[in-house]
Sequence to fold (185 residues):
Amino acid sequence: MARSKADEVLEEIERSAHRRYLPIIGPSRGRVLIEAVRRYRPRRILEVGTLVGYSTILMGKELGEGSEIVSIEYDRDEAEQARANIARAELPLKIEVLVGDALEIIPTLEGSFDMVFMDAAKHQYLDYLRLVEDKLRSGCVVVADNVGFMSRSMRGYLDHVRDSGKYESTFHRSGLDGVEVSVKL
Fold:
C-alpha cells in the first residue's frame, strides 16, 4: 500500500519534534484521537493548540471532502509552520489555522462543532470547554490530551467532564500520560 503525502509529513514532524523536543500528541496517544474521529465521524472540528499541525493532519487524514478543521495556535511562528505542513499533506478538506489566544478567539467562532480536540494550556481546558459548550450538540466528542501527566492542573476540567452529568467520559492511559474522551449527553 502506497504511503500518502500526509503519512510522509507526519513522519517528518515526528522526527523533527523528537529533535526539537516539541510536545506533539505522537503515534501512541494519537491512536486514541484517530479512533475518536473514526467512531464519531465529525464534519467540523475545533482544535485548540495546533503547534506544528501534527494532530491537525492526523485528524484530517480521517475526514473527507466537505469536512472542516478550525485550529487555534497562540504562537505565530508555530502557526506558520503548521500551515506549511498542512499544505504539504495535501488533505481534501478545509483547514483554517487561526493565530491568537483561544480564550479570545473561541467566542468569535460561528456555527457548531461536532468534535473538539484540546492540546494547549492545560490549566485552561475547562475555560476552553465552557466557551465552546453551547456550540456542541448531544453526541459530540471532546478529546483532551495530557490528562494523565498534567491531571493536577486540570482537576476542574476532569471533574466537569466526569461528574457534571453533561458528558460520558473515559480515560485512555498511554504510559505515564493519557487522553480523556468525553461524549456530550
